[in-house]
Design brief:
Blueprint: H1 2-30, H2 39-66, E1 78-80, H3 82-100, E2 103-107, E3 115-117, H4 119-135, E4 142-152, E5 155-164, H5 205-215, E6 219-225, E7 229-237
Parallel strand pairs: 2-4
Antiparallel strand pairs: 1-3, 4-5, 5-7, 6-7
Length: 238
């Protein structure tokens, strides 16, 4: 476990350099250093810039998780519109859905109330769950995103779910998937066939998601059946 944490720290540190370079080129392109761009290309540049910023945030999260320092991270809670937050994540991941020919169904009512959250943390949770679904769903598969208000034991909560029709998770592994550095046994042989997800990750995505949900006094759970897919859901009080 200690060696894996050290690997996470090293990888995160080394990723900082190419991320900084990518951000610098985005700045130069946006400033017109290499000429002007038509509006549609400027929109694409904005998406790339946002993705670079997210990558930077993810490496920071890996550094925090690997160094067991998440609890020292200052919270920045604010009222946030969930439909806008979820839409931003889906827009960023849109090209991956297109390349993988994945069908996407979104059921996020625009009338959902703004909720008090740390937006970067909840955004990371949603993104990690979506990337997990993409990774373990075959090309041409289906991913669904749902959000709504529920009530449990007299407490109003927002519930967000990400469902896929991918390879699923064996019952004996479900209790372990939220542990740091844990990878599902079939992670090297999943059915996506996509180059981007052709190797195992660090096993931090779900661990980070769980920690961030718990930071909001929430819970995260998974329902899965091998060969039929998985549904990850989390709830947080509103």
């Amino acid at each position: 476990e200690k060696k894996k944490a050290q690997v996470g720290l090293i990888l995160s540190h080394e990723l900082k350099t190419p991320i900084t370079i990518a951000k610098a080129y985005c700045d130069l392109l946006e400033q017109g250093t290499y000429g002007t761009f038509p509006p549609n290309q400027r929109e694409i540049l904005a998406i790339v810039r946002e993705a670079v910023a997210r990558m930077n945030a993810m490496t920071d999260a890996i550094l925090e998780m690997a160094s067991a320092d998440l609890n020292k991270r200052p919270a920045r809670f604010q009222r946030t519109p969930l439909p806008k937050l979820i839409g931003s994540v889906l827009r960023e991941l849109g090209p991956i859905f297109t390349l993988r020919k994945l069908a996407l169904r979104v059921d996020v009512p625009q009338g959902l109330p703004d909720i008090l959250i740390e937006p970067e943390e909840i955004r990371q949770v949603i993104e990690n769950l979506l990337l997990n679904a993409i990774r373990f769903t075959p090309d041409g598969g289906r991913v669904e995103v749902e959000a709504g208000i529920i009530e449990e034991e007299g407490i109003r909560k927002v519930r967000i779910s990400v469902r896929d029709d991918g390879i699923g998770i064996p019952p004996e592994e479900r209790h372990s998937i939220f542990r740091k550095f844990y990878e599902v046994g079939d992670s090297m042989g999943h059915s996506s066939g996509s180059y981007e997800f052709g190797s195992a990750g660090l096993g931090l995505g779900l661990a980070i998601a769980k920690r961030y949900v718990e930071n909001h006094r929430g819970q995260i759970e998974v329902e899965s059946e091998p060969g039929k897919g998985s549904c990850f859901s989390f709830t947080i009080p509103v």
